[in-house]
Amino acid sequence: MLRLFRSKIYLALFMVSLVLLFGVLGYRYIADFSWVEALYMTVITVSTVGFKEVRPLSTDEQLFTV
User: Fold this and answer.
1) Rounded to an integer, what distance in angstroms lies between the CA atom of residue 61 and that of residue 29?
2) Averaged pLDDT for residues 2-31
3) Residue 1 binned pLDDT confidence (cut-offs 50, 70, 90)
4) Cystine design at 61: which of 31, 37, 39, 56 (Cβ 3.0–4.6 Å)?
5) What is the CATH number of the domain that holds 38?
6) At 50, is the secondary structure helix, strand, or coil?
7) Cα–Cα dist 3/62, whole Å
8) Could you report the per-residue pLDDT of 22-52, keeping only the tens digit for each?
9) Which long-range contacts (CB under 8 A, 24 or more apart) does 56-63 make?
10) Between 35-46 and 2-30, two packed helices, what is the crossing angle to 10 degrees?
11) Average pLDDT in the 4-30 region?
């Protein structure tokens, strides 16, 4: 049972890391944000906080965010 639980946790952490990596790289290269801005936008989007965009987004950037 412990082995199954541990493998699911590792899988979940791996998937979250992949989403964060994909989001940061997307904002970095599609929207030309700095690394910190890209991480910030990814975290507020994934966590559904939606606090405030770093700057207004173009149509392409809005589609990536969706």
Assistant:
1) 10
2) 87
3) low
4) 31
5) 1.10.287.70
6) coil
7) 41
8) 999 999 999 989 999 999 989 998 888 877 7
9) 57/31, 58/31, 60/30, 61/27, 61/30, 61/31
10) 130
11) 88
